[in-house]
Amino acid sequence: MIGFLKGFVLHQDVDHCILDVNGVGYIVYVSSRFMVNLPKPEEKVSLFIETVVREDAMTLYGFQTLEEKHWFRLLTSVQGVGNRMGMAALSFFTPQELYAVIASADKASLVKVPGIGAKLATRIVTELKDKPALALPSGTLESPSLQIRAKGQKLPVGNSVQEDALLALEGLGFRRSEALPVVVGVIATVEGEAVLSEVIRACLKALSRV
């Protein structure tokens, strides 16, 4: 099985690229998020690989982080979520955003992914929200979002979206002092009632630029 590849991107298509690894070209299916951020032609790219073997084909799916690969496995473990749909979800959401969506049972956001309807969104949330596998195995490259589950914690439920968002961001590794102004600013821009998962996603994007 192939678990990792490093090489140059020779060609890119809508949902895959050809990776030149020491003169051998591998067709690797990747997210549109990866396509948007392709390195320069002379720069090597490293991808963690999920190898899917079937009777008639062997398909490679590439991920920039182990966390993305882990979430791909989680999503495709749900009945009705195929490999292409798993990649579509990772094109639409970062792993941190997926964690927030599922932890807060935000089915409305999941149905924005092409191919995911209301019933499938409900199944994804139901099967994954309390799944122990949301924590990466020890010894792998864990991110703060997954370390929360590794400790058996859940996103807290409070009396306000602001406080819930702050506690969630603290659980993701951010200091309250740096998260507070971002949360307040995000909520201030929301028209109508603020939705926790949307606030968390907006805050993560803002904090990643700091």
From TrEMBL:
Keyword Transferase applies: no
Pfam entry (one): RuvA_N
Molecular-function annotations in GO: ATP binding; four-way junction DNA binding; four-way junction helicase activity; hydrolase activity
Primary location: cytoplasm
Domain Holliday junction DNA helicase RuvA C-terminal residue range list: 161-208
GO CC terms of this entry: cytoplasm; Holliday junction helicase complex; Holliday junction resolvase complex
Keyword entries, A-Z: ATP-binding, Cytoplasm, DNA damage, DNA recombination, DNA repair, DNA-binding, Helicase, Hydrolase, Nucleotide-binding
Superkingdom of the organism of origin: Bacteria
Span list, region Domain I: 1-64
Residues annotated as domain DNA helicase Holliday junction RuvA type: 1-62
Region (Domain III): 161-210
InterPro entries, sorted: DNA_helicase_Holl-junc_RuvA_I, NA-bd_OB-fold, RuvA, RuvA_2-like, RuvA_C, RuvA_C_sf
GO-annotated biological processes: DNA recombination; DNA repair
Subcellular location: Cytoplasm
Subunit (UniProt): Homotetramer. Forms an RuvA(8)-RuvB(12)-Holliday junction (HJ) complex. HJ DNA is sandwiched between 2 RuvA tetramers; dsDNA enters through RuvA and exits via RuvB. An RuvB hexamer assembles on each DNA strand where it exits the tetramer. Each RuvB hexamer is contacted by two RuvA subunits (via domain III) on 2 adjacent RuvB subunits; this complex drives branch migration. In the full resolvosome a probable DNA-RuvA(4)-RuvB(12)-RuvC(2) complex forms which resolves the HJ.
HAMAP family to which the protein is assigned, alphabetical: DNA_HJ_migration_RuvA
The family this protein is said to belong to: Belongs to the RuvA family.
Domains: entry comment: Has three domains with a flexible linker between the domains II and III and assumes an 'L' shape. Domain III is highly mobile and contacts RuvB.
Described purpose of this protein according to its UniProt entry: The RuvA-RuvB-RuvC complex processes Holliday junction (HJ) DNA during genetic recombination and DNA repair, while the RuvA-RuvB complex plays an important role in the rescue of blocked DNA replication forks via replication fork reversal (RFR). RuvA specifically binds to HJ cruciform DNA, conferring on it an open structure. The RuvB hexamer acts as an ATP-dependent pump, pulling dsDNA into and through the RuvAB complex. HJ branch migration allows RuvC to scan DNA until it finds its consensus sequence, where it cleaves and resolves the cruciform DNA.
Protein's name in the database: Holliday junction branch migration complex subunit RuvA
Lineage summary: Bacteria, Pseudomonadati, Pseudomonadota, Alphaproteobacteria, Acetobacterales
